[in-house]
Amino acid sequence: MNTVLVANHPETVSCPALFLAAPASGQGKTTVSAALARMLKRQGKVVRVFKTGPDYLDPQILHQASGEPVEQLDMWMAGEAYCQAKLFEAARDADLILIEGAMGLFDGEPSSADLAARFGVPIALVMDVKGMAQTAAAVASGLVNFRDDVQFAGLIANNCGSERHRQLIEDALPENLPLLAHLARSEEVALPERHLGLVQASEVTDELETRLNNGADWLEQAGLADLIERVPSVDFHMAETPAVPELLKGQRIAIAKDEAFSFIYDANVRLLEEMGAELSFFSPIHSDSLPVADALWLPGGYPELHAEKMAKNQPMIEQIQAFHQSGNAILAECGGFLYCLETLTDLDEQQYPMLGILTGHGAMRGKRGCQGMQTAPLPEGEIRAHAHHRSRSSDTDEPIAHGRRQRHPAPGEAIYRSKNLTASYLHLFFPSNPEAVAKLFKPE
């Protein structure tokens, strides 16, 4: 294990770390990150992987690749202290920390570059170089020189066509940006996708396992087997974080979790447990009864892919309807919100009855959608959140509030309330306001 305590500083741990970023989405960041994690895992290394931004799907892939828990890091949604604490905890146990960026390197506020700069993690630039040679070096050089507060470990040239292609790129790179590797195009390592991004790992476990091992072979053949020896160590510092109050002690919370409902932050589950909640899980598709519970959490996912099965599970529908009518607390996020409406129309334009505990109808809308960071201004308090959906709702009742967008004055997602049901397209990040979250699940 390469992690070391820094002499005379017990609150600082030094650990090799690398930030994988790109000029844009679709460059192969997740494929390379997952392949690196699997390659190092096969070497017997402990690799802790983090994902920048509010992503649910990439962490599932990265978890299977590394065999270790994967946390989302976002300084706006979670706060700097939270991110610092998670990196420090990982550094105590890891041989290497990998952080996968989001979108382009400088996109967003805060961006991947902001996160890398804040914690001093060197960046490995992953770039799809298909169709260009010296121009790839020019683009990479521009990124390297755009800001002076980020450091770069080198370039990983993805989709590199030949040895000559590699040479043209490498010869044109600036001295401060070495070529770490050139990767040939390989369909055997590509990760499966669908309309919201990558396919959930649980749906393609065996296929994914093959692709991860192919990816590890791919990187070893490209000369990255000794990468961990070339990655510089970074000092990670302990963060002062407030103690979590036991505001949900003894409260029983049932969480929907199956093929349709899986967009669940581990951080959210962990916080509920730290606040004293007793958690259980059930499937709106397969379970014929609800667990004994005081509150329900219906998270996001892909209900549109399983609407027919959900509609046919009449015992579950009737029990959730009765649970709501009794005034028990329910939090419904995105896919969970769609489940609460009267009907849901899938991508094949087939309409199915849903719970009907909220007025309105949900329908998929192909490739158009909404995404972005928002604050949920709830009566219980403000909670940081994000939206990412390709559906719409119609004929709904008047919302109690709208999300407040991070960087735009237009109203964000509508937030609805019926009895003690709170529903919205927003995915809430619970650690941003534990007290408000406790009131949602245990209303006074």
Automatic annotation (TrEMBL):
SUPFAM superfamilies in the cross-refs: Class I glutamine amidotransferase-like, P-loop containing nucleoside triphosphate hydrolases
Named cofactor requirement(s): Mg(2+)
Domain CobQ/CobB/MinD/ParA nucleotide binding: 19-196
Keywords: ATP-binding, Cobalamin biosynthesis, Glutamine amidotransferase, Ligase, Magnesium, Nucleotide-binding
Location of region: Disordered: 385-411
Domain CobB/CobQ-like glutamine amidotransferase: 252-433
Domain of life according to the entry: Bacteria
CDD domains: CobB_N, GATase1_CobB
Pathway this chain belongs to: Cofactor biosynthesis; adenosylcobalamin biosynthesis
Comp. bias regions, Basic and acidic residues: 392-401
Name of one Pfam family that matches: CbiA
Stored NCBIfam families: cobB, PRK01077.1
Family: Belongs to the CobB/CobQ family. CobQ subfamily.
Protein name: Cobyrinate a,c-diamide synthase
The species this protein was found in: Litoribrevibacter euphylliae
